[in-house]
Structures are given as C-alpha cells and as structure tokens.
Amino acid sequence: MILGIGIDLCEIQRISKAIERPRFLERVYTPAERARIEAASGVRRGEIAAGLFACKEAVAKALGTGFTGFFADAIEITPDELGRPVCALAGGALKRAAELAGDGDFRVWVSITHEGGFAAAQAILEC
To answer: Domain span at residue 109?
Structure first.
C-alpha cells in the first residue's frame, strides 16, 4: 500500500554554492553523505549534493510533514552496491514513517536524476 509520494526539483548551482558553507553541509547531510560529496570533484560534486538534497525534500513530502519534527539529516540517502539510491530514516523521520505504517513494516523507494542544471528526485513510502 502506498502511504505517501513526494517529488522535488532543485538547481544544482544553488546547492553547489550552499555546500561551500560547512554549516550547511553539517545541518543537511549525514557523515556518509558528506564523505560522498567531498570525494567528488567539479560538476559531479554539485550534482551529488543537489540530488541528495532533492531526495531528502521528496522523502519529507512523502512523509506528509515536510521537515516538521525532524531535520534533513534524519533522512540518509546512500548508494547500494549497484549505485541505486537507498533511503534510511532516523529520529523524527523514522517515527513519522512508523506512524503512517501503523507501526508495521515500511520501505521508502527513491529515485534521483540530473539534467540541464537541475536535480530531481521522487520518493514513495510503501507499507
């Protein structure tokens, strides 16, 4: 059963400028996400950061709350062994998903794309 759907679009250049500020990186991204961003260079660094940001926004929308009750770092997006994005929730985001799922099992499906200076992401919360 689908419990929520979210989508987001953001400008890569805007996020590229934002990640120049250490405070932004620390507030928005988990340590694993920061390591991935910092390991990239050039345009790819901005694409990764913007894709992760859009994905976090899409997940927050799928949860139906936006970032009310938790911060962006409560949503972690990491690649699996094939490079596919996988979502893990913590804190208030995890609590919200569990509430929507009636304390049952749930999964968050995510997809990220980059094109023409933009990053987009979609999230589906499934029970």
So the answer is: 2-126
Asked whether the predicted pLDDT for residue 103 surpasses 80, the reply is no
Q: What are the pLDDT digits (tens) for 60-90? A: 999 999 999 999 999 999 999 999 999 999 9
Is the pTM value of this prediction over 0.90? yes
CATH code, domain carrying 21: 3.90.470.20
* Main-chain phi, psi angles of 120, to 5 degrees: -130, 150
Which of the residues 17, 56, 95, 114 is marked catalytic?
114
C-beta separation of 108 from 97 below 8 A: yes
Distance CA 124, CA 23 (A): 29
* AA letter at 57: E
- Domains contained in the chain, number: 1
Q: Choose, from 17, 56, 61, 95, the residue flagged as catalytic.
A: 61
61 is catalytic: yes
Q: How far apart are CA 43 and CA 80, in angstroms?
A: 22
